[in-house]
């Protein structure tokens, strides 16, 4: 099942107050009197798929225009995946797309119930619809779109070489970028290497150790205050144990006082268990104070003033502080910096070798790309010749018998994502005319027929699911009009086709006929869209043929046209 547009609801756009288009899978035609708003149908479809919003198209008196479309899509197709990726919902294979445009020019879009940027609808449209209105034809006039169109026509012949080219092109770009960085920044990288070498040499001379700065700070503090530290330890020791040079009877040291306290409590401990506990704690305190006093004595013995060592420590700290100030917050950080700098220096010193390797790879990739680009050109040239002739043959049947379409390929100097080919569709309106770009060689009506011819040629090359044409039959009639209808019907065999036309010969080939009706209530014109049955089609075709719905001659001619189209299908 191919995706298709099932229904479109338009409100407040141009002369259309409110209209609903119910569309069939095949060939849908939209007709109506001049000024009824047929073109607004195409405009609405264009807006639905991300077209440019023009506030002047909003119906006078309305604050906004709203277009809502219901699409039938494949549950496992690419469009479904895109909708799921943005969090939209698809119910029973149906996708709802909505777009509003305010009178002030503000535009909002919804996809599967989720608000999305309008650009998302444009992106989605590439897989869903090709709108060929008087303004929308400009897309295929862009060189990139023309190259994509030719590539699509070339089909499988181009797929393999283009895939190989794309892979080589990406690597070629990567290698080129690396070479540019290595060569254009050579001076900066050399300067960086010099700075790293200087830093590493400076660190290597000092040979710092992790945590050394903290250890030296502590040692400097001790050496700088050796006398004070030793005096404090000695005084504390004397306070705890007393001075052995003094008479014991006059001692008031902590140990003696604790002994007296313990002896007093021990004498009566048997009379109260609570006091016995206090005696035990006094004993423990005595042992603890004795240990502390011993440690103080040992500490006092270990502290010696050493001016030479102090000077050495201060010198060493100065060296470490210089490194820390330059490279890190502490000595451990300096060592980390040195390790990282060594790794980076190895990388920088390997630049010359790396440049040689990348240069060789770049040259090989350039040669490879040259071969692949030449293969792409060959395939495109072959496809261009077939494509131009096929479109020319179609134009002959579309009342442009003297027109000739060609596809010109020119090569650019630099490799591009799709090769070196620039593609331009050209048309000569008659044998004596020079081939000109489509936007210069074809009028508006002719351009529509060229687009129709192109899409018919594309019909076998995986076309988009839905085509919309406006004024595709401008300036033609008679037999040419019948051929246009026949070719639109042929296109509708593989895709949904929606056509706005004023030609009964075209309308007769439709699978579904919609008519835009207008009624005037004095000051406001309203338009609606009706789906015609067989009798309604006869009346509408008669009006288009003779200007009178009930003309017997017109009705007979309408029946004849419908019969011809039915037989052709």
UniProtKB/TrEMBL annotation:
InterPro entries: DNA_recomb/repair_RecN (IPR004604), RecF/RecN/SMC_N (IPR003395). Keywords: ATP-binding, Coiled coil, DNA damage, DNA repair, Nucleotide-binding. Residues 6-521 form the RecF/RecN/SMC N-terminal domain. Residues 348-382 form a coiled coil. It comes from the Bacteria. PANTHER family: DNA REPAIR PROTEIN RECN. Belongs to the RecN family. NCBIfam families: recN. May be involved in recombinational repair of damaged DNA. This is DNA repair protein RecN. The gene is recN.
